[in-house]
Amino acid sequence: MADINLDGIQTWYDERGAGDPLVLLHGGFSNATDFAGSLDTLADRFRLLMPERRGHGHTPDVDGPITLQVMAQDTIAFLEKVAGGPARLAGYSSGAGVALYVAVQRPDLVERLVLISGAADLDGLIVRPGLGGEFPDVVVDAYAAISPDGREHFPVVVEKVVRGMEGQQALTADELARVTCRTLVMAGDDDIVTLEHTLELYRGLPDAELAVVPRATHLLMFEKPALCAGIVADFLTGDSAPTFMPIRRGAAVG
Length: 254
Description:
The chain contains nine helices and eight strands. Helix 1 packs across helix 2. 35% of the residues lie in helices and 19% in strands. The protein has one domain (2-253): Rossmann fold, CATH 3.40.50. It has helices spanning 68-83, 94-105, 137-146, 154-166, 173-176, 195-204, 220-223, 225-237, 248-253, and strands spanning 2-6, 9-16, 21-25, 47-51, 87-92, 110-116, 182-188, 208-213. It has an eight-stranded mixed β-sheet, with helices on both faces.
């Protein structure tokens, strides 16, 4: 565990294992424990880097908004200064949105991309956080337990994130086409991201693969940790191989 100053953001991160870098981006209002027992087991194959974004986990909030664009710039700085990019990049929930923004803007820094329960368009979400709503005690307690800003700052972070979402524009087809690396799009079959949007995202990325985890929700990595880790590990370590009866990819080649 360490921290680094990224252009004024004193960013905390967990580091484990050795080998090629794999950067994991947690979900909203959460921290690196999103990957506990699932993707953090990949430390036996990779140099695992799990940064906690501004206003989340052990990383303090700073003046200014919290948007996907802002967090993508923070992540780009982390990839350059800590991972020494390019690196494999995996994001969960809002972390998947951040990872996607990074891959669109800096494809040179992303060797392979994993998007877990993420959306390129907020209309693809069945539910989203709003102002004035109550968060479960478990979420607030987890924030308060490690945040340097204290429990009373949680509503401030919520408002920043919600305001950031309100101003977020959907990624266009041309922007998605800039993601040149192999990409795994993964979601639960009962996720808060609609299956229709997950399929749209899969089809919109030039070199994408799709995994829908059965009998799983937005918390698929807690519900099916071994299965999720196995799917991601196979994608990150295996070579792209031709299939015997391609339809979508066959048409793309032809």
